[in-house]
């Protein structure tokens, strides 16, 4: 599983970066980071698909017992995630892959995470996961909305509105959580505590919380959505590089496979969150602006 996830993540980052090279070269400033939104979103999907295809029993246990053919759906989702990752990274049929990934994520939220959170409503982690997975689905719909050629104006507006509201609301919730738990790993405020060796770890938490709160409120109110999503997504991507990158590299030396997988999951979970926000920034380009993501015809 460790080899499969490392291979899938690196491969899709390289493929996505190569396919976006022209747009990145033409972009200026933080627009270069926005141009990588598809690569940032695709690589984690491939990693999570590889976990499914490697037979992760922890994920399999999450499949509801009432569902028929549990093993089939477990592996089917793995194949679907890898296929969607290739679609998003290469720009082929993005409007469909983005739409379907969003539906998949919202099904996870409805069937798994909301019932689990309601069973223990005082556990904040459950609600963090609900918001995280909702943001992933929203980011996928934002990428579908921004695809060229894409959906009609009405469908595009609906997809973009849902994406904006869910991403903005989740960012506000995450921002508040950072002020209560400033030394937790920043971005998506789960259980991991930053090492004492990281300088100013509480300051990083408070700064990230402030950015999430302010940018999320602006996105939710539909005020300068593109600019705010660009700033916030770029900040989360920076955290991935300077906080989660070293954690990922350090996990290689761990003897237990579980510790290695934890490092991979934290890195790619946060990268996927950055990709979702940057996808919203990319899709929020003014009408008539140059297309950022042109679909390539299916071979």
Overview of the structural elements:
It contains twelve helices and no strands. The protein has 299 residues and is mainly α. The chain has one domain. It starts with a helix and ends in a 16-residue tail after the last helix. About 2% of the residues have low confidence.
Descriptive key words:
299 residues, mainly alpha
Secondary-structure blueprint of this entry?
Blueprint lengths: L1 H18 L1 H6 L4 H4 L2 H17 L3 H4 L9 H21 L3 H26 L4 H23 L6 H28 L20 H20 L4 H27 L5 H27 L16
Helix pairs in contact: 1-4, 1-6, 1-12, 4-6, 4-12, 6-7, 7-8, 8-9, 8-12, 9-10, 9-12, 10-11, 11-12
Secondary structure tally: strands: 0
Q: Outline, from the CA principal axes? A: globular
H-E string: HHHHHHHHHHHH
Helix percentage:
over 70%
TL;DR of this structure?
The chain contains twelve helices and no strands. It is mainly α and 299 residues long.
